TrEMBL record:
It is found in: Cell membrane. Belongs to the 4-toluene sulfonate uptake permease (TSUP) (TC 2.A.102) family. This is Probable membrane transporter protein. Pfam families: TauE. Its main location: membrane. Keywords: Cell membrane, Membrane, Transmembrane, Transmembrane helix, Transport. It is a multi-pass membrane protein. The keyword Cell membrane applies. It comes from Actinoalloteichus hymeniacidonis. The chain crosses the membrane at residues 6-30, 42-61, 73-92, 99-117, 162-181, 187-207, 219-237. One of its GO terms (cellular component) is plasma membrane.
Amino acid sequence: MSTVELVMLAVIVLLGSFLQASIGFGLGMLAGPVMALIEPSLVPAGVMLLATGVTLSIVLLDRSELDLRGTGWALLGRVPGVIAGAALVAVLPTRILNLVLAGVVLLGVFVSIRGFAPEPTRLAVVTAGAASGLMGTATSIGGPPMAMVWQSKAGAALRGTMGAFFLVGSIMSLAALAAAGQVTSEIVSHTALLLPVTAIGVLLSRFFARKLDVKRTKAIVTVVSVVGALVLIVQQFV
């Protein structure tokens, strides 16, 4: 990975970490497609490692607002999703995984634009947890299902609950990926170079999160994510 590529990744990871710590999601949707373009080996394990650090910070900062019961049901659903996602990573070639990653981004954007808002019943939360586990383990993007089912939450409650789910969920996914031989020393060393950037993103979110226009911010995330996904798709056929 060249210095220019590292700087590009650092910028997108900084923005993604800031958004993740501000509105509860964003790191995977932004960093996933860019990492797949620049350094495919870092997807999904590298993104998951970075997300683990960010979500740990969020849980510590917003722990008083998290919904433990809802998180528990979501994690129950995540278990089979993680197993299925790790199996996909083990058997699918990189090109197909990149196309799946791009498809997951576009699907998440489409559902968000359509305004689908399921009631956060126990069944809905468990189902969303399973979908998040599958998508997150296979592509590093597990935020859309949980954001959909927990969209009635706001502020610290959303960040804390999403953070707790993704912290435990990311550890589960990393364990499954490691068991499938997808977490190497090279991936860990490359990811470590980006960890300081995630810390800066989290710190910046503490100063600016309250001033964010959430709707406008989500719109920006949507546009950037769609562009990244489309570029990734085109790259697979050129």
